[in-house]
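Re: weekly structure request thread

Next one in the queue (232 aa):
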Amino acid sequence: MARSSSGRAEQREDASAFVPESRSLSDLTAAVQACTACPLYIDTTQAVFGKGSRSPRLILVGEQPGDVEDRRGLPFVGPAGRVLWECVEAAGIDRRSLYATNAVKHFKHENRGKRRLHKKPSTDEIEACHPWLDAELDAFPKANIVALGATAARSVLGKTVTISADRLAPTMLGSRTVFVTYHPSAVLRADDRAAEVRAALVADLTAAWAASSRPRSVSSPAAGGNGSGRSD
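Done, posted below.
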């Protein structure tokens, strides 16, 4: 529930009505294509749902699909994805034990001639899409989470974070541990700091993998529960 400038409470629509009760990935992947909870679906090729292991030790959450992901229908297959998988390999992580997704399922962009340029999703758009991420987290109740970038961290934790400050302090979210780190696109934008940002991303992935390799006792949430552990 949000408040307008007049102070009156107003209801923001989200994707809840489009999310099936099933936590089968095939059911969720099919259902997300019908989602019209926010305007981002209008000028995109398709919704891009998560992909990866059916029993992951880590869930990687990014911001949104890019141009290549929108066209191919898969997460992290563009330039930033190439950086991510290089860092995953450098961290000694078995990619087959990961599930990768995004906080927002449609590609927000602006058209510049024949090019489609990334635009950061708004808080309303992140919140509108959050029920889809909840459903994915519900499907994997034992997996820890790596939030790649500020948008992913905002969606997972329900609050604004500063990557440089919060990446060194993992957060417990219910029975999970959430690790916050840079989005791989930050490496592409960093210029003279690219090596530093890449090294930090590898170090954070390494720490998350090590923590997720330790045996833990986790009770599964009830079906349809808020797998993110957020209080909203």
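Confidence is low (pLDDT under 50) at residues 1-11, 217-227. The longest helix spans residues 194-212.
Next request, please.
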